[in-house]
Amino acid sequence: MFDLGSSEFMLAALVALLVIGPKDLPNVLRWAGRWVGKARSVAAQFRLGLDDMVRQSELKDMEAQWQAENDKIMREHPDVPEMHEGDGDVPDAGLDAPDVPK
Questions:
Q1: How many structural domains does the chain have?
Q2: Which of 15, 51, 63, 84 is the least buried, fewest Cβ under 10 Å from its Cβ?
Q3: How far apart are CA 56 and CA 61, in angstroms?
Q4: Taking a C-beta distance cutoff of 8 angstroms, is the pair 22, 13 a contact?
């Protein structure tokens, strides 16, 4: 973000000490720290919101792609009987199963 070296940081600390004074400097630093923390929190929430929107968009794209692929398969193979959940019956695939004694 900012490229502050040790010399620039020391210069900023010296100017702050001269302008603000040693008595009020801890209060000012505490106040600045709180605001920096709030700014980071807001930025993190904003980033999470954007990430969530991107994930939802990707999910919609994947669902549309899946639906298109599913429609293509159903058009190519229309004679396959549909199975409904809970039917318990397996559709006849046209294969002859050996006779099993009961």
A1: 1
A2: 84
A3: 9
A4: no
Decide if 28 contacts 20 (C-beta within 8 A).
Answer: yes
Asked whether the whole model's pTM tops 0.90, one would answer no
Residue 15 lies in a domain: no
- Show the tokens assigned to 42: 């807001």
2, part of any domain: no
Element (H, E) at 28: helix 25-76
Q: Is residue 81 part of a domain?
A: no
Q: Quick check: 82 and 74 in contact, CB under 8 A?
A: no
pLDDT in tens, 19-62: 988 899 889 889 989 999 999 999 999 999 999 999 999 999 99
Task: Please state, rounded to an integer, the average pLDDT across all residues of the chain.
Answer: 83
What the block records as the tokens of 22 is 């040693």
